[in-house]
Known about the structure:
single chain; mainly alpha; Arc Repressor Mutant, subunit A
Amino acid sequence: MLREQIGENLKTAMKAKDDKLRVATLRLINAAIKDRDIAARGKDCCEGASDEEILAILTKMVKQREESAVAFEKGCRPELAEQERSEIEVIRDFLPRQLSEDETKSAVEEIIREFEASGLKDMGKCMNALKERYNGAMDFGAAGKLMKELLS
């Protein structure tokens, strides 16, 4: 399970005492997962975050850091942008391999064929299928633009 993998990596990084950024980033990941667990307590769910939910958390964390890195570069703070990018690399260790542009395009085309989508009205169900199959492995913003072009 992803939660245990992150915990084991944190223990290893803490014992190694060589990479403070990795330890700090892994602690941030654990904190985000615990926040999600606490939010779920009020509902009928008493289990922790599932692997899919953890993947969504990690994907969101990568996106936030990418946006921050761009903002830091625009603000002439390259050292902070580099720190954000270093955190992204640690987070990506737990995400599935990201699909290339060509792989994304073929996945989008396959979903469109499979659902026999013919227009923008079918975009929602196609995007949901993409998210189920490629959770954490695809930039859904880019996939959505591509799907919109193909369905228009």
